[in-house]
Amino acid sequence: TKQKLWGGRFTGKTDPLMHAFNQSLRYDQRMHAADIQGSIAYAKALTRVAILTPDEEAKIVDGLTRVGKEWADGVFQVQPDDEDIHTANERRLSELIGPLGGKLHTGRSRNDQVATDMRLWLLDQVQDIEQSVKGLLRVIRGQPIRWSHLLLSHATSFRYDLERLQQLIPRISVLPLGSGPLAGNPFAIDREFLAKELGFASIAENSMWGVGDRDFIVEFLMWASLSMTHISRMAEDLIIYSTAEFGFVTLSDAYTTGSSIMPQKKNPDSLELLRGKTGRIFGNMAGFVMTLKGLPSTYNKDLQEDKEPLFDAVDNVAASLKIAEGVIATMDVHADKMAKALTMDVLATDLADYLVRKGIPFRETHHISGRAVALAEARQCQIHELTLADFQGLNANFGPDVVEVFDFEASVERRTAIGGTSKAMVERQVSVLRALLS
Ligand code: ARG
């Protein structure tokens, strides 16, 4: 059997369960492209400090490219002793190009390598997720019907989610490579060159921090938890509004499922899963913060536990954004049902405001309006069915124009201050989002 990469000081065998426990290749292989990319940049940097000749660099880069292609084509042969993506790629490189492959890891550690890979991988994923948040924002503003204000309230949360996601990027984009196992690189490796080559915005200024920091993962998990919370709250609105009792929206067949026993059912499983996944993503975040808490400085193998929660969160948040977009883009909205659900008592505040405009302090008008509601209740009628004499019996300032209060459209149109539900202010929200997305 082949030697482990770190086998020199060992004489005894690894316990088989320990081997499986330690092995991360089954999940970290999804970073294969980032690992190859990082190694290619590192090979070039080694040439610049004369550890490799240009010819050796070319052979290594060619070998790494071939390893990367094997992964991409799904033909990479995993060996039992491949501990993680880093050892697997290096093992394969040496098989392809011989002992020269063993020069690549000069001055590098898996500690700075894995931290670099994770950042490269996440930067790439964040770009896709950013597009999905924008997609969700686009379908929401595409429904300029009256209940647009409600949808736009959710869109406003997503707008700040987008902003927060973009603000994470500079903190993910910090280069660990060149930190070595913890103390730094003894071959004067040009880290500015590495950063440029790999597209990092800045360089980890402290090598111990560089290999030991996973705050960028915590921040992403926190971002995912919060934006899933927003998706969940929107889902909850739509679940209620899609019930038979409300019937404000009908979800398309594409995003619903049937019941195995109740033939009439159309279950909003998409929305319930969006709500449900939120708990799991929060769990990934809370669990990983627990992993970090109490770790001593620099790299510890505990940090390998960053991968599954991050990968799971990325997968589920990416899918959730697409599902949410699909649900909204395909649902039918029933304005007639919403209109039918309106009751005149929701205009009681407008009735109080009517008297405010006649000069009466709001605290009094609130009380008068409340008495009008009570009177209508006693008469078993709706508030707008009270007579002018009824109103004047409550307050002398009521005039015949009180009938104008009982108009839902007019009520909505009075909310003309910025952020209100008047048509102009809804259009303003749409144009703010449009400008953001263009
Ligand atoms: N698979 C490891 C991880 O994901 C790579 C780093 C290994 N470093 C070490 N000191 N054992 O964290």
From TrEMBL:
<dbReference type="InterPro" id="IPR000362">
    <property type="entry name" value="Fumarate_lyase_fam"/>
</dbReference>
<dbReference type="InterPro" id="IPR009049">
    <property type="entry name" value="Argininosuccinate_lyase"/>
</dbReference>
<dbReference type="InterPro" id="IPR008948">
    <property type="entry name" value="L-Aspartase-like"/>
</dbReference>
<protein>
    <recommendedName>
        <fullName>Argininosuccinate lyase</fullName>
        <ecNumber>4.3.2.1</ecNumber>
    </recommendedName>
</protein>
<feature type="domain" description="Argininosuccinate lyase C-terminal">
    <location>
        <begin position="346"/>
        <end position="413"/>
    </location>
</feature>
<dbReference type="Pfam" id="PF00206">
    <property type="entry name" value="Lyase_1"/>
</dbReference>
<dbReference type="GO" id="GO:0004056">
    <property type="term" value="F:argininosuccinate lyase activity"/>
</dbReference>
<dbReference type="Pfam" id="PF14698">
    <property type="entry name" value="ASL_C2"/>
</dbReference>
<feature type="domain" description="Fumarate lyase N-terminal">
    <location>
        <begin position="8"/>
        <end position="141"/>
    </location>
</feature>
<dbReference type="InterPro" id="IPR024083">
    <property type="entry name" value="Fumarase/histidase_N"/>
</dbReference>
<dbReference type="GO" id="GO:0005829">
    <property type="term" value="C:cytosol"/>
</dbReference>
<dbReference type="InterPro" id="IPR022761">
    <property type="entry name" value="Fumarate_lyase_N"/>
</dbReference>
<feature type="domain" description="Fumarate lyase N-terminal">
    <location>
        <begin position="143"/>
        <end position="283"/>
    </location>
</feature>
<dbReference type="GO" id="GO:0042450">
    <property type="term" value="P:L-arginine biosynthetic process via ornithine"/>
</dbReference>
<comment type="pathway">
    <text>Amino-acid biosynthesis; L-arginine biosynthesis; L-arginine from L-ornithine and carbamoyl phosphate: step 3/3.</text>
</comment>
<keyword id="KW-0456">Lyase</keyword>
<dbReference type="InterPro" id="IPR020557">
    <property type="entry name" value="Fumarate_lyase_CS"/>
</dbReference>
<comment type="similarity">
    <text>Belongs to the lyase 1 family. Argininosuccinate lyase subfamily.</text>
</comment>
<dbReference type="InterPro" id="IPR029419">
    <property type="entry name" value="Arg_succ_lyase_C"/>
</dbReference>
